[in-house]
Design goal:
Number of strands: 5
Radius of gyration: 20 Å
Distance between the termini: 56 Å
Number of domains: 1
CATH architecture: Roll
Largest sheet: 5 strands, antiparallel
Strand order of the largest sheet: 1-3-4-5-2
CATH topology: Thiol Ester Dehydrase, Chain A
Helix content: 25-40%
Number of helices: 2
Order of helices and strands: EHEEEEH
C-alpha cells in the first residue's frame, strides 16, 4: 500500500493528478505485492502493466493497494487499485504481470554477454 498526500507539484494543466503518477503508484503497489512472496534476493521486473484511468483525482490524497490474482513460479499476476484516501473512491485500476529474472551480479552478466558477443563475432567471420 502506498499513500501520496495531495501535492500541487504532480498536477496536470487541468488541475488533476497527472496520469504518470497513477501509473507509478499502481505499478509500485502491484510490484511490492508480487515481491512480498519471493525470496529476499530475488529480482522481479514488470513485464506488462495495463492501467485504467477511471476518474480524475483533484485535491485529494491517493492510496494504491495491490492484490495477488495468481501467483506462479514463472510469473505473478497482480491487480492494483488507486483510491481517494479520503473517500475510498476508485480513481484508477491496473493489472500487471511480474517475472523473476536471474540474480547474477551485474558485472558477471555483462562479462557473460560480452563473451557471447565476441564468440558470435568470431564465428561470423569464419
Amino acid at each position: 500500500m502506498f499513500d501520496l498526500p495531495h501535492n500541487r507539484d504532480v498536477l496536470h494543466a487541468f488541475g488533476g493528478v497527472h496520469g504518470g503518477v497513477y501509473c507509478i503508484m499502481l505499478d509500485n503497489a502491484a510490484w511490492f505485492t508480487a515481491a512480498a512472496r519471493r525470496p529476499l534476493k530475488s529480482v522481479l521486473v514488470t513485464s506488462s502493466l495495463t492501467v485504467h484511468f477511471l476518474a480524475p483525482a483533484r485535491g485529494v490524497a491517493l492510496r494504491a493497494v495491490g492484490r495477488m490474482v495468481k501467483a506462479g513460479k514463472a510469473q505473478d499476476v497482480v491487480e492494483a487499485r488507486l483510491l481517494s484516501a479520503e473517500t475510498g473512491a476508485l480513481v484508477g485500476y491496473a493489472t500487471g504481470t511480474f517475472v523473476p529474472i536471474p540474480t547474477e551480479p551485474t558485472w558477471q552478466a555483462y562479462e557473460t554477454y560480452r563473451a557471447e558477443a565476441l564468440t558470435r563475432r568470431a564465428t561470423a567471420r569464419l
